[in-house]
Amino acid sequence: MDRSGLKEKACARIDKEASALVALSRRIHGSPELRFEEHQASTWLVEYLRECGFDVEKPAFGLSTAFVATKGSGRPRVALLCEYDALPEIGHACGHNVIAAAGAGAASGLIEILDSVEGSVRILGTPAEEGGGGKVIMARHGAFEDVDVAMMVHPSGVDMLEIDALAITALEVEYRGVAAHAAAAPHHGVNALDAMVSAYNAISQLRQHIPSTQRVHGIITDGGQAPNIVPERAAGTFYVRARSRAELEVLEKRVHDCFRAGAIATGAKMSVAKDGEDYDELRTNAPLAALYEANLEAVGRQLSEAGKITGSTDMGNVSQLVPSIHPMLQIAPPDVPLHTTEFCRFAGSESGDRGVVDGAKLLAMTAIDYYSDAALRDAVRVAFETRS
Ligand SMILES: [Zn+2]
Ligand SMILES: [Zn+2]
Questions:
Q1: What is the CATH number of the domain that holds 293?
Q2: Domain range for residue 248?
Q3: pLDDT in tens, 372-385
Q4: If both were cysteines, with which of 128, 247, 320, 353 could 22 make a disulfide (CB 3.0 to 4.6 Å apart)?
Q5: Which ligand minimizes its atom distance to the CA of 130?
Q6: Residue 104 Cα to ligand 1 middle (Å)
Q7: DSSP character for 267?
């Protein structure tokens, strides 16, 4: 069977599965679970993939809510990634329910054609994208060894081939001072909140003098215990982002200096810890992204003209290990940003459902292109190795 025949067969299966996939997406959307706690979502996905005929292992690669489903054997091996964690307070405002169901749908499509091509597919259930770095932990446990390419789609307000995903580190700073009665004996106190505020202001000043491609932003999470007590403890969490891990290291040191400035000025003791794993910048594999782009027309989509979207993802770390794509799939109007309650609504609406089916087809068709063409596989590998 030729390539277009294989694509038709896979897409026909995805159409047949559409109602089950949409139900899966809506179910995950209706029961949002935070990072590392995605017990229901991962169980539902595993059930679906087992019914499709996949061999599934869960837990996998060091995480209780991760799974790996495989079909076929040998190379080339395509990895499809399913995210399914939600955000605190605002649920599936990043639309990971759509990612999960699209990945599962692509898997169901590929099962139809794997007998006709050389190679295999590995579906990875990857928890904790929202700050936990699930993929980083899974990579450490070997999830991407023996994988040739890794793919996923991410819902968005636009159709784009990539997101401008920056390297990121999350820093938690804590100051410890000395409590004292704020009116009776303030001179006996060491004010931890003053340390935090000094650091916050120093970071605000730093921000004027960093390149526009870098980001530092944070919140104060503890500002003291009562107005009439000199604050004994204060704390904050800051995200630091840059275009590469090398740039990030330099910026991170400057943020550290701001933290230290607060400690020195007040005499408070300071400690800094990382919150979760550092994320690498995303490297989109151009030949692989071109395959995805060529398939857009088949599902009635085209790339948006909009400018870039900036963020960060642990798919960045995967993209440093194997050729990868992380295209954005439109499920909401362009002016509705990710991580808002409005976006959450779209992720559980008919446009989110359409994203599930289209995303599944796009991933399946791109995988079929990859399986079917040795010259393309070479181009993907060369682009990865030469970092072009
Ligand atoms: Zn997100
Ligand atoms: Zn996301």
A1: 3.40.630.10
A2: 167-274
A3: 999 999 999 999 99
A4: 353
A5: 1
A6: 20
A7: -
